[in-house]
Amino acid sequence: GSVSDMLSRPKPWSKLTQKGREPFIRMQLWLNGELGQGVLPVQGQPQGPVLHSVTSLQDSLQQGCVSSESTPKTSASCSPAPESPMSSSESVKSLTELVQQPCPPIETGKDGKPPEPSDPPTLDSQPTTPLPLSGHSALSIQELVAMSPELDTYGITKRVKEVLTDNNLGQRLFGETILGLTQGSVSDLLARPKPWHKLSLKGREPFVRMQVWLNDPNNVEKLMDMKRMEKKAYMKRRHSSVSDSQPCEPPSVGIDYSQGASPQPQHQLKKPRVVLAPEEKEALKRAYQQKPYPSPKTIEELATQLNLKTSTVINWFHNYRSRIRRELFIEEIQAGSQGQAAASDSPSARSGRAAPSSEGDSCDGVEAAEGPGATATATATADAEEPGGPAAATKSQGGPGAAEREEGPPPAGTPGPDDTGAAEDAGRAEPPPPPLPLESPAERLAPVPNPAAPVAPAATAAAGEDAATSAAAGSPASPGTSTGTSTGGSAPAAARRPRSLQSLFGLPEAAGARDPHDNPVRKKKAANLNSIIHRLEKAASREEPIEWEF
DNA sequence: TTGCAGTCAATATC
DNA sequence: GATATTGACTGCAA
Question: How far is CA A90 from each of CA A180, A205, A495, rounded to the nearest angstrom?
Fold first, then answer.
């Protein structure tokens, strides 16, 4: 009754008493997703933040409800508001239990029934997919996602990978039966999870599913069963097809089964996949360095020069920007987690994403790419892009989507083409920052170019699109010729944003948030970054090119 | 219209 | 055979 009244006739804030405001605060928290922090427990994270947050808020309101909060009192009697403490916390708790409880793998679960005959992986993730939560009314994944508190995507993927590998379970099986995604998507997701706050509702879905799956004590067995059944079905089909020479047969389990055998869809409708030649990629990367957001005209030119379809060029830029962004996210996370790894619960800390981490916290991609051979140049690059460094910094904010959402610059997400340029320290651009030796061939490692630091905006600005195109053009022909592809851009960006993404992400429990143990490497990088910043500043003030060597 | 997130699915690589 | 990479596509938002 109180709720009804409150929802239908809310009183203006100013008219509310401290107590009367409480329900609204709760509602706001709930709307913000802060309420329910315990729904999907993030390892190590105590449930109940809700109350804490409320409590703190209350504190600020100087009210005594705090006690009521933590003290599940028999609110019934209390004023309309009091009811919330209990009810909310309880509801949250129940939900939490729900998710924590063993629950069948999403769509499979049900009585060990085979993985959805139709299991059209694609459809699966559709909104309605109910999460069969044992004993409770099924909640749709969307509901769970909406109610879910911030999850440690990195930690979740690490755990999932561990479980999968430990039990010899494949990504395909896991993806199709648990996540409703294809193998490629799963691989990508597990290898490059984006921080929770960077994910859209849809993007969070797989993580919630993974979390739910991880919470299911029988997850492995179920998946194993699935595997067995699949195998059985496969063998069966195989036999039947062999004997009946009946190649195809609508797979009952909706899994890819020998596609090779099914001749039916011979329809030449499938257009061959475009595979860009290394030189083409190189050229595109160069162009990207020049101009991360090329104009239609530039794209046109690039397409012409590279003899590609404009759509291909467009797609390439989209994909490249997007992927680089993700790389950066990861670097950041890794950089952050690195220090806390030890503390982190699971062994995953070390193993997970081992690869990248191994490459050195963060700048990995680059370093790895460059390889040991990385000469001074490489080093420079690496350093420059360094996670903590430009790369990170940049990405964090400058980069195309850098700090988007969470951080002030909202539009950042869609850094208009100009954005970048503009953002880029326009100023210093002038004196074309001595082009950072673009490890022409090597740098490739996507991550390197550091999207964030759409390089040489200056150049861009000045040279305009031509620069880009020309750069691109040039490369194909002579990839090696680094064509003074000005790349220095990143540095300036970094300078402007010394801030660590970590803070940006503000991943509470996420790896990134933990005490970033400053290991020697990090310190060194930090020093490097400072040096870069310093030089940039000097350069900016001097307006004269300087020799870049970090 | 443009950019992006999320995916798929073909293909590469391990 | 499993996993990683990547060009293309869809849907959404600004």
Answer: 31, 24, 48
